[in-house]
Amino acid sequence: MEDKNSAIKNIARFVVDKRRAFYLLFIIMALFCINSISKVQVNNDIVSYLPNDTETKRGLDIMENEFITYGSAQIMVTNITYASADEIKEYIEQTQGVAGVSFDNTEAHYKDSAAIYTIQFKGGTYDKISETAMANIKAYLSGYDYYVSSSVGQDYTKILNEEMSQILLVASLVILAVLLLTSRSYAEIPIFLVVFVVAALLNMGTNYWFDEISFVTNSIAVVLQLALAVDYSIILCHRFMDELEIHAPREAAINALSKAIVEISASSLTTIAGLMALTLMHFRLGFDMGIVLTKGIVCSMITVFLLMPGLLMLFSKAIIKTRHRSFVPRITAWGKLIVKLRYVLPALFVVVVGFAIVFSGKSDFVFSDENIDTANPSISRIASDKIEGTFGKSNTIAVLVPTERYEDQRRLIEEVEALDCVKSAMGLANIKIDDQHMLADRLTPRQFAELADIEIEMSRLLFQAYGISVEEYTPIFQNVDEYTVPLIEIFPFLCAQKDAGVISLNEEQSKTIDELRETLEMAVNQLESENWSRLVFTANLPIEGQQTDDFQDEIRQIALTYFDDVILVGNSTSARDLKNSFQSDNRRITLLTILFVLLILLFTFQSGGLPVLLVMTIQGSIWINFSFPYITGNNLFFIAYLIISAIQMGATIDYAIVITNRYLELKQTMDKKLAVIETLNQSFATVFTSGAMLTSAGFIIAGLTTEPIISSIGQALGRGTLISIILVMTVLPQFLLLGDIIIEKTSFKIKSNRPQQKASGTMWLDGHVKGHVSGYVDANIKGLVRGEIDVQLAQQNEAPVEPPNKSNEQEGINHEAE
Q: In the beta sheet, which residues pair with residue 438?
């Protein structure tokens, strides 16, 4: 043990003595990371983190690689006459960049003096042509009451970054206020700020190591890193201030760092354990968040260990000059109340947790961000709710089937379209070219000549040439006028011949062909690839629920009667896959987090019973936390449950460790009831500081962001941390007091026959002393020690007294065993 302490002391001495080199190193790393932040790729689609074997992921990959998806929008205009609504339709149709608009005088488009337009653009969602068209439409509608539900023209990344900047600013101010309240010196604050900013830059600037990170992780990682890791700075700073009482700044920094390395490392283990459990989720968003936050904890530790000691030395004079009295009150009355209620609250806790387990199991979990209950909805969410309230729900589901076989596609579309809940159906087999023809219709040469406005002889020659190209010789050896070809096949053949100069058309014919070509190309790009055809259905159903699940099953059964391979894709299918993933991830995260934390606590306290008491307290707070959605009638987003379950166990267990360590130390020198009271007094500042920061961070995130996923995570984090604080300051001390005999019986520490004593202040020692007196000693000491002691006494004769002779008083004695 002495060799280990000596090694840590040597490391601390090296860090302090080479502090200028570390200043330079961190300046270089910070500048590098500032430049690297722009290289980080952010993924805005959480569905992409589904396992590769899920139907949704397979379908999304196919659609991304093989299809073009054009931008679309739903716009509702209220308090308008039908005549005015029709004029708006005409303007939208003529707007450059608009491919088409759906609107008529049916109740599906005009109802209760409100008109709804379904618009398709000529470019993708984020293409300039689509964004310009949307901007022009909004400008035209500026005098109307209108609501837009669309991703076109919405820079969600920019909006989210602006929101998170505000959140970080507000959270920083709140955390600054907490630090001022709980600090010992005003000069601590700039040190904390420098350390955190550097640690945050290191974490953000190294995220480019990964191919990409999710927008959820990118948004909240900085705030969570601040709230989770600020404890490390506080621990080292307070150690330094204690050492500064009796040492010069250099020795104080060395001693403080050597002690803090062990303490901070032990504290970080439970937090890292909870975060690493996230990385084992099937839903890979857990891995994304777990690995980035774990890296953030490591960056914070590195910064505290290597940069902060030098800053403490640099600001040592200011720290001494700006010391102030503690603003944190003693809570002796609270401690006495806790002792008095030791037989009541634990029983009440068991009852409450029993109900919480039941209620949390009945929570309404949702798996689509469109269904999350949020107090601060975005403008787009408000628009969608308004549209849904007037015209009903519009749930879009895409069905991928093998390409061609247009007759089977037509029958499939007709059968699904006949279902009561279906509002619209679209596929190549039912897209109209004009009032009489659809893309999948089989046409004769005469019908095609009339449609394309070309001569009949040219049409016959075209059909014969097509037959030869596909090795069908019917039009050559039999009557060509009876030969039929699907319009979707013969028309591209005509365009190819025109482009090659084989067929000559006049200007009017060329214009007609070009208009038909644009319609056909847009349809084909969206609905057909080399291997797959895409059918799109819109239903008046919610995104998730049993009725929606039954509808998906019915579509699948109908499609399988025509095709062997069928893939469903949409918000409803992704919600269903996420639900299936959640069921296994929930068990995995809960069990692994508890197991990891139990093992760490087992080796920390060397007791079998004590870890169970601590984990039971925090797990109880988790169950209580997630019973609130059921009690309040709100839903709960599944990601918030998984992530906060792990973070709450891994991070807030530290509060329980602080309480437990103090109690185990104090009960050696005083009555157990008094030890509980004093434990709460000594631990309150630490628990309040860390807990207030994490609680504030959670509630600030929930209140200021319009992104429902991030809001739900913040709300669960703030509420869960607050519940954990309450339980560790009430129920846990009672568990320790009542379960003391269990703690002792299950301990496997090697016990010393010498009593362990701790004290601070001015005292007189007379006897053989072995332990720490601002350093390690093993000697016969007879004299005055001013400072703190943690020693074993061979002959106990210690009492805080005045020295017998003032002239013999020694100040700042420091004995260090080599």
A: 432
Q: Which residues contact 378 (CB under 8 A, 6 or more apart)?
A: 159, 706, 707, 708
HSE-up of residue 178 (Cα within 13 Å, Cβ side)? 25
* Contacts by 496-500, CB closer than 8 A, 24 or more apart: 497/462, 497/465
Long-range contacts of 26-31 (CB under 8 A, 24+ apart): 26/198, 26/303, 26/306, 26/307, 29/202, 29/205, 30/198, 30/201, 30/202, 30/205
Contact between residue 302 and residue 239 where contact means Cβ atoms under 8 Å apart: no
C-alpha gyration radius of the chain: 35
Alpha helices in 362-503 (DSSP H): 379-391, 406-417, 445-452, 456-469, 474-477, 487-500
Q: Which of 340, 306, 335, 368 has the alpha carbon at shortest distance from 712?
A: 368
- Tell me the mean pLDDT in the region 191-210: 92
Residue in this structure with the two tokens 């000693």, named with its chain if needed: 777
* Amino acid (1-letter code) at residue 263: E
CA distances (Å), origin 619, targets 263, 349, 509, 606, 645? 24, 12, 75, 21, 9
Q: What is the pLDDT of residue 649?
A: 83
Nearest CA among 497, 491, 499 for reference residue 517: 491
Please report the beta strands in 184-335, taking only residues with DSSP state E, as ranges in sequence order.
213-214
Phi then psi for residue 281, to 5 deg, are -70, 145
Residue 115's pLDDT is 96
Please tell me what DSSP assigns to residue 396: E
Q: Which of 52, 51, 53, 59 is nearest to 572 (CA)?
A: 59
669 close to 677: Cβ distance less than 8 angstroms: no
pLDDT for residue 694 = 86
Helix (H) or strand (E) holding 183: none
Where residue 749 falls among pLDDT bands split at 50, 70, 90?
low
Report the distance separating Cα 184 and Cα 196, nearest Å.
19
Distance CA 150, CA 134 (A): 10
* Percent of the residues in the chain that have a pLDDT greater than 90, as a whole number: 41
The pLDDT tens digits for 326-370 are 788 889 999 999 999 999 999 999 999 999 999 998 999 999 888
- Counting runs of H as helices and runs of E as strands, what totals does the chain give? 30, 18
User: What is the per-residue burial (b if ≥16 Cβ within 10 Å, else e) of 171-210?
Assistant: bbebbeebbeebbbbebbeebbebbbebbbbbbbbbbbee
Cross-strand pairs, 636: 365
Predicted confidence (pLDDT) per residue in 15-24, tens digit:
999 999 999 9
Find out whether 491 and 520 touch, Cβ atoms under 8 Å. Answer: yes
Q: What are phi and psi of 759, to 5 degrees?
A: -160, 165
Shortest CA distance to 227 belongs to which of 149, 296, 140?
A: 296
pLDDT at site 770: 55
- Tens digit of each residue's pLDDT (9 = 90 or more) over 782-799: 666 655 566 555 544 444
The model's pLDDT over 52-72, given as tens digits with 9 standing for 90+, comes to 889 999 999 999 899 988 999
For the chain, how many residues are written?
818
What's the half-sphere exposure (Cβ side, CA atoms, 13 Å) at 592?
20
CA angle 205, 167, 186 (to 5 degrees): 85
- Which of the residue ranges 9-23, 71-85, 295-309, 471-485 would you say has the lowest mean pLDDT? 471-485
Q: Which two tokens stand for residue 79?
A: 């308090």
For 656-666, write each residue's pLDDT tens digit.
888 888 888 88
- Which DSSP string corresponds to 589-625? HHHHHHHHHHHHHHHHHTBSHHHHHHHHHHHHHHHHH
